[in-house]
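Listing S7. Sequence submitted for prediction.
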Amino acid sequence: MTKNDYQNITCVDRDIVAQIADSVKTRLENLSRLTFLNGFQIAWPSDLCETLEYMNAGTFGQEDSGTARKLRPMLLGVFILGSVGTLIELLLLGHTEEVFQLTPLALLTVSLTVLGMWFMSGGVRILRAFQVLMVLCLVSGGLGIYLHYRSNVEFELEMDPSAHGRALVWESLTGAMPALAPGTMFQLGLIGLLYTYRHPALRPRPKSGSQPGETL
C-alpha cells in the first residue's frame, strides 16, 4: 500500500489502519534490530517507510496543501474588505428602517467580531460559530433577494395594475430597488465558508502529540 492508496481509505477506518500501521512498523523495527545483531542489515523500501510514517501519524486527510495555505489568507482578506465595504454602503443608504434591513448589518458586524475573537484565541468553537454565521449570510442573501423583488413587484403593480408576465418580471428586476443587491451577502457567505473549508484547526488531531492548528 502506498501513501496515495491510504488516502482513499474512509475516515471510519482511519484509527484502525493507524493502529495496524503502528504494529507493523514496530515489528519491522524489531526485525531490523534482530537481523543487525546477527550480522545482517535490511534496507526497507523508502516508499514503505514513508507510508507507515504517514499512516501511523494519523494525518489522513489533514495535510494542508501549499495552494490552500496561500489562498486562505487571500479569501480572508476579500471577506474582510467586502464585509466592511458592504457595512459602509448599507449605512450610507440608510438600510436601517426595518428589522429585515438590520439583519445584514447585524450578521456582518457579528461575523467580523467573531473573526477578531478567532485571531486572539484560535478556539475551534469560535471558528464553528463563524461557519454558522456564514450559513446565515447565505440565507440572508436569498431572503433579501426575495424581499427586494417582492417590493418591486408591488410597486410596479401600483403603477400599472395590468402588468403581468415577463414584462412585470423584467420591470421588477430592474426596478428602483436593486433586486439582486442582497446577493452580496450570499457571496460573502460563500467566501467565508471557503475560508474555513478543511481548515487545519477543524480537523481531528491525534490523541498524542497533537499541536494547535494555524490561525490563518
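Caption to Listing S7: primary sequence and predicted C-alpha cells for the chain studied. Residues 3-56 form one domain. Residues 124-159 form the longest helix (36 residues).
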